[in-house]
Design brief:
Elements: H1 3-10, E1 18-30, E2 33-44, E3 59-70, E4 78-90, E5 96-98, H2 113-122, H3 128-135, H4 139-147, E6 162-169, E7 175-181, E8 187-191, H5 196-206, H6 209-213, E9 217-220, H7 224-227, H8 230-233, E10 238-241, H9 243-264, H10 271-278, E11 296-298, E12 303-305, H11 307-315, H12 319-336, H13 340-349, H14 356-366, H15 368-376, H16 382-397, H17 404-415
Parallel strand pairs: 2-4, 6-9, 9-10
Antiparallel strand pairs: 1-2, 3-4, 4-5, 6-7, 7-8, 11-12
Length: about 425
């Protein structure tokens, strides 16, 4: 391979009309700092015969013009190409014109492959300033390449038959709505707000009723505002409450009661207090994961016992706490076994005890059909919660966003 082709291949330049002459190192002073750069001296020429203005074949060579092109580099010295472009002059109309190359747009100084590098770094949830430092370009250039000419699609081609709905904290302490395909996990839409009006306007204005009627299930949390208009948008959709949020609801109710019991214990150094205070995580373990045979040293209470002994020690402090514990774990077990009949029986036979569990059970009763449907549904909000986790990581890495359009662009990049 000729040396010229090796240099161009190393810089990912594929224009056969460019002939690299040599590469030289040079030191420059930029903002008071001495920097080392690499310069590729090259010539761009190819035959042109027709004048772009008068269309006559009277073009003659008319010297060269020099262009300085910034090439893409990753964590290395800045690389420039000093490209001499062939000029032509028309003998008929005296128009002067030159040759062009796809490695850089007309009247631009940044190579076209720099944008691909910027997008590649953006997919890794790097901030604009970090991307600029890695690629040795200015932050304003990185921001322009990342956010310009990225129109958001008007709508997705197909809504699918199963959807996930959720929200996340976006800009200015507000919340935004996100909707994904439950099967392919692709984003359907990210809205600036989570207001019912905005969600209804989006789906009603962009999708025909026949398309919306094809949606069969929508998985969401226990957000009552979403449930109030789901059937207006999707008449045939079955609302499914995410299983994780059901378990989380009853576990939080149990923790509320546990905290109340702790406050009522006068002796803060007693064994029951230490069992409920320090080892609270054991009370959330599923029944089949609790070790009731092997004795081991339990930190906090500083004794040797089984996990079941410690749980019994804490629950014996309050009969109400024990009933709440049994209710929470019965619901958790029914969800785990996908047993809709058992879950329905638990909700139906529950006796109010005057604590936080009453509110949790009342909430589940109000959404009984959606809650029971979670036992038979094959879908959950796991995919959309994973996307929300990526969004939180992106927001933290970039120190937050003030422009929702930019934030949405970055979200679509990290999810693709």
């Amino acid at each position: 391979m000729p040396q010229s082709n090796s240099i161009l291949s190393l810089c990912e330049l594929t224009d056969e009309n460019i002939n690299a002459i040599n590469v030289e190192d040079k030191k420059i002073v930029k903002n008071g700092i001495v920097k080392r750069i690499k310069i590729i001296n090259a010539v761009l020429t190819y035959s042109r015969t027709t004048c772009p203005k008068c269309r006559t074949e009277t073009l003659i060579k008319n010297g060269y013009t020099m262009h300085h092109i910034r090439l893409a580099t990753i964590s290395g010295p800045e690389t420039y190409m000093y490209l001499k472009k062939q000029r032509y002059q028309c003998k008929t109309c005296h128009l002067t014109c030159g040759v062009h190359t796809p490695i850089v747009k007309p009247n631009h100084s940044l190579a076209t492959n720099i944008k691909a590098k910027v997008v590649e770094q953006a997919r890794l949830s790097h901030s604009v300033i970090s991307i600029a430092k890695v690629l040795n370009i200015s932050p304003s250039s990185a921001e322009r390449l990342l956010y310009s000419n990225n129109p958001e699609p008007y709508r997705v081609k197909n809504l699918g038959t199963h959807m996930n709905w959720d929200e996340f904290r976006s800009v200015n302490k507000g919340f935004s709505f996100i909707c994904i395909d439950a099967e392919g996990h692709s984003i359907i839409k990210v809205l600036d707000t989570r207001l019912s009006k905005d969600i209804c306007d989006y789906f009603e204005n962009r999708y025909e009723l026949s398309e919306r009627q094809a949606v069969k299930t929508i998985v969401m949390d226990l957000n009552a505002s979403y449930q109030s208009f789901v059937h207006r948008l999707f008449p045939n959709a079955q609302i499914v409450v995410d299983r994780f949020h059901i378990v989380q609801l009853v576990n939080r109710a149990f923790d509320n009661v546990r905290t109340s019991v702790l406050k009522g214990i006068q002796d803060k150094k007693s064994r029951p207090y230490k069992a409920l205070k320090t080892n609270w995580r054991l009370f959330h373990l599923a029944q089949d994961k609790i070790d009731d045979t092997n004795t081991k040293y339990i930190c906090g209470i500083n004794e040797y016992m089984t996990q079941q002994n410690l749980i019994d020690l804490g629950l014996n402090e309050s009969s109400t706490l024990k009933k709440v514990y049994e209710t929470a774990h019965a619901i958790q077990q029914a969800i785990h076994n996908r047993d809709g009949e058992s879950l329905t029986s638990i909700l139906k036979n529950y006796i109010p005890m005057g604590n936080a569990m009453d509110t949790a059970i009342l909430t589940l009763k109000k959404n009984r059909s959606s809650v029971v449907a979670s036992c038979s549904s094959a879908f959950s909000n796991g995919a959309i919660e994973g996307i929300n986790r990526k969004i939180k990581t992106l927001k933290r890495a970039c120190y937050g966003f003030t422009n929702m359009s930019h934030f949405r662009t970055r979200i679509l990049l990290i999810v693709k």
